[in-house]
Amino acid sequence: THRFFNLKQMCAIESAAYNNPNALVFAYSWRAEFPNKLILQKYENLRFVLLKPEKILNETILFDWWLKNRTQVLNSEYVVAHTSDIFRLGLIYKYGGV
Question: Which tens digits make up the pLDDT trace of 51-74?
Fold first, then answer.
C-alpha cells in the first residue's frame, strides 16, 4: 500500500540477496517503487519486479478466481496479507521456488 519501500523492507531484501548468493532473488511489489535500488546494485542476483496481478495469475488455477473476487480481496481489512498470499501462490504455481 506504500509508494516506497521503507528501510526495514530494503534491509530484508538485501539480506535475502546477501544470504543466497547462488540463487536469484526476486523482490515483487504491486505499488512500491524502487528508489533505493542503487544501494542494492552490487547484488547481481537481485531482481526488482513491478507486480501485475493478471500477468502473474494468468495460466494458473487462481486466474478466474482472482477476476471474480479481486474487488472483495482489495477491499478486505487484511488486503496486504491476502494479496501477498494469492500472489505468492501464483508465483510458486508458475515458477516453483522457495
Answer: 888 999 999 999 999 999 999 999
Contact between 31 and 3 (Cβ < 8 Å) = yes
The set of cell numbers assigned to 21 is: 548468493
Nearest Cα neighbor of 17 from 42, 49, 35, 36 is 42
pTM: 0.73
- Cβ atoms < 10 Å from Cβ of 15: 11
C-alpha to C-alpha distance for 11 and 59, rounded to whole angstroms = 33
What is the crossing angle of helices 79-95 and 63-74, to 10°? 160
Helix, strand, or coil (residue 47): strand
Written as nine digits, the cell of 26 is 526476486
- Residue 58: CB atoms within 10 Å: 13
Residue 47 grid coordinates: 531482481
